[in-house]
Amino acid sequence: MKVDVMKIREVKIYCTVTGRLRPVVIEVITDEGITGVGEAGVAYGLGQTAAAGMIKEIAERMLIGRDPSRIEALWSEMYDHTFWAKGGGAIVFAAISAIEQALWDIKGKALGVPVYELLGGKFRDEVRVYANGWGQEHIEVKAFVDAAEKAVAQGYDALKCYPFAYRDPNPMATSKHPSLRSLDKDVLKLALEKVRALRSAVGPDVEIMLDLSGGLTCDETIRFCRKLEDLDLFFVEEPCDPFDVGALKKISDHVRIPMAVGERLYTRYGFRKVFEAHAVDVVQPDICLAGGLMETKKIAAMAEAYDMRVQPHVCGSPLATAAALQMDACISNFCIQELYPYWQTAADYVEITDDPPEARVKNGKIAIPSTPGLGINLVQKAVQPFLWATVKGH
């Protein structure tokens, strides 16, 4: 007896603009009327239209008319037959990640369960989060510390900051980071003062994380970090070029602070050398960039085998956060979840989703949702002006 199989009928791609972010989000629509959503992890920096174009080509040649339930098979086809995915970078894997999330969203909705139930079920009912994005515009120490104290007063007991970064005045940009692999002594001195003042202000019970964005040379990073070893920092993120495993290993061997890396790495293959070298303590795959939900689950399993924790990276729309929460729920070695609770305060912010997790933070934690799929949908009125392309079957 022939059984009717659900088919992908249409893919919509939106290049949205919301505050300083430019999230590329998609809807994969089936012939049974079930719609799945996903996000490409290139909401900051450059590459949004390139990722959108990659999604469009994959949709035209590999998705329309296919069974959306065959997620692993479709992922393997995208990996093998886009040709450029093997050894590929952000654009290819941002596209694959967005599509893969949408397929899981469809499957969860079709079965009436959250995605984490399809990936082994929950380890936890809520997750601890850390606040990011609160301090970049504050150059002076007092303003920086005042912003941190405000975040703590709002219930956050973990904060991440960028001691070298500053807010780019261009409203299309996010932040500026060191780009010449060195800094003036006065800038380094100010960075040290800011971090020390931060610890003094928030006290010993608030976790502090530093993101160096791979901005300095290996030797300067070691010198800088060793001056902060007494502050009990939670981790230092991207202490060097994330693709230079030798430098990562050298820094982690010489500094008594946990090291973290991963937002710019893709797939289990990209993380393998970091694991094998025991180069860091915390890995930070971005579900919207590393290859999607199942690929991140595999990366987390590899990290567990190498005695490392996982902190899923997020810097996008609330859709990216919703996808991360599904992963947070079902991996054993979860560490803490990144969150940008202050994007929504910008005057030009556009809320493109119907249930942003950022609005559900209580005492520095978010409850894992129980709604089917990813637990979040696009607001049609908000995203329609940003429709970039539609791919339909013939």
Fold topology:
Elements: E1 8-15, E2 24-30, E3 35-40, H1 48-63, H2 71-81, H3 90-111, H4 115-118, E4 126-131, H5 141-153, E5 158-161, E6 166-167, E7 175-176, H6 185-202, E8 207-211, H7 218-226, E9 235-237, H8 245-254, E10 259-261, H9 267-276, E11 282-283, H10 293-305, E12 309-310, H11 318-330, E13 337-339, E14 365-367, H12 380-383, E15 387-392
Parallel strand pairs: 4-13, 5-8, 8-9, 9-10, 10-11, 11-12
Antiparallel strand pairs: 1-2, 1-15, 2-3, 4-14, 6-7
Could you characterize the architecture of this molecule?
- The chain has 394 residues and is α/β, with parallel strands linked by helices.
- 36% of the residues lie in helices and 16% in strands.
- It contains 12 helices and 15 strands.
- It has helices at 48-63, 71-81, 90-111, 115-118, 141-153, 185-202, 218-226, 245-254, 267-276, 293-305, 318-330, 380-383, and strands at 8-15, 24-30, 35-40, 126-131, 158-161, 166-167, 175-176, 207-211, 235-237, 259-261, 282-283, 309-310, 337-339, 365-367, 387-392.
- The strands form 4 sheets. The protein has a 6-stranded parallel beta sheet with strand order 5-8-9-10-11-12.
- The longest helix is centred in the first third of the chain and has 22 residues, at 90-111.
- It is globular, with a radius of gyration of 21 Å.
Describe the structure concisely:
36% of the residues lie in helices and 16% in strands.
- Gross morphology is globular
In what order do the strands lie side by side in the largest sheet?
A: 5-8-9-10-11-12
Pick out the low-confidence regions. Answer: none
Oligomer: single chain
Topology order in helix (H) and strand (E) letters: EEEHHHHEHEEEHEHEHEHEHEHEEHE
Beta-strand proportion: 15-25%
Number of strands: 15
